[in-house]
Amino acid sequence: MATLDDIVARYPAPRFQPLAWLLMGLLVATGLWAWQAKLDTVAVAQGTVVPQGEIKVVQHLEGGVVQAIFVREGTVVEAGQPLLQLDLSTSATNTEELEVRLDGLVLKRARLESEAAGEPLSFPEDVAVRRPVLSAAERRTHESRLDNLEGKVRVLEQQAEQRALEINELNVRRRSVSNDLSLARERYDLSQPLLASKLVTRIELNEIARDVQRLEGELASIDAGLPRARAALEEVEEKLASARQEFRTDASGQLSEVELEIRRQEKLLDRARSEAGRMEIASPIDGVVKTLVHNTVGGVVRPGEPIMEIVPTQDRLVVDARIDPIDIGHIAEGMPATVKITTYDFVRYGGLEGTVTAVGADIEQDEQGKQFFKAEIETAHSYLERDGLTYPIHPGMQATVDIHLGDKTVLDFLIQPVLKMRYEAFRER
């Protein structure tokens, strides 16, 4: 009969001891890993990207006809980027007319300054080159006014010469008459004693006396005429000086009026140029075109009428998230969060890191009756990047928000259901 030792020797034990030790080691290692390894705990919420700032309504002060449209709804625009171009034909025409009128006034001012100062005519070179017809017209006006002045001056100068000649003639006559009078008086004085001796008749003496009286009268007439002649000469000379002064005074008066008109035209031109500059409507902010009211070339835009709306975009985004009431007790301001934009696959494009900036104090309810708490998450960027390309995120996009609540070990995750069952099981009636 075989003994126990014979049986053992005949049927050796299977060699599973090394495998058992290996499995035991794996179990221990797994337990240690589950005890040490930590996983992120998150509260998942659905959200919507909202604009950070007020929506800007684009309008135009004067209105006009749509000439070109550079954007469409959903276009991402930057501040200063052209959005729309209007046809402001009236403003353009007014601008050109005002420029011509202003240049004409500048040329007229140069002419009047020359006339007021009595200096040679000189026009601003740039205006004269730009407006040759106007400068030629002002030059002709200047020459015509000078010719008119010179004509008056020549007439007055001739009158002055005539008056001077008259004075000279009167002086010559006075000297001649004065000499004749002296001789006549001398003859009378010599002839009077001869009357007694009858060497001179009474008739001859009376004739000499009549000559003396005639010459005295003529001399008195000349003496009376000289002041009148001198006064006439002075009057002509005053008229001559007055003609030149009136010419300059008239030029100075017109110059003052032209200066005022130039300032008025400059203001009108600035306003017209401002209107012309508003032909191209630019975006006031960085943003996204939301509502395009006028999307047809040729459409009429009324003054002050809304043309489009721009939703602002900034370096940061704000996401309105709806928090499940179950999770609200674990969420507080300042908690980190990861925003996954639904439009962009999270596996390919990744997400945006953000922070909880506000948590609603009261529960809200949507149209379907689902209750939630509102929370705001602000991100560090407003775009996603992949392979060197930038993918913008616009207001209105849907997002999934993972709010990071803390860390748990794998062991916690494994034993939590067991503990929950322990506390909740065998309690029903």
Automatic annotation (TrEMBL):
Residue ranges of coiled coil: 139-173, 226-282
Natural source organism: Marivibrio halodurans
Domain AprE-like long alpha-helical hairpin per the UniProt entry, residue ranges: 93-273
Entry's Gene Ontology cellular component terms: plasma membrane
TM spans (from-to): 19-36
Subcellular location: Cell inner membrane
Name under which the protein is recorded: Membrane fusion protein (MFP) family protein
Bilayer topology: Single-pass membrane protein
Gene Ontology biological-process entries: protein secretion
Keyword Cell membrane: yes
Family assignment from sequence similarity: Belongs to the membrane fusion protein (MFP) (TC 8.A.1) family.
Keywords, alphabetical: Cell inner membrane, Cell membrane, Coiled coil, Membrane, Transmembrane, Transmembrane helix, Transport
Domain AprE-like beta-barrel: start-end pairs: 317-405
One Pfam short name: HH_AprE
NCBIfam families in the record: type_I_hlyD
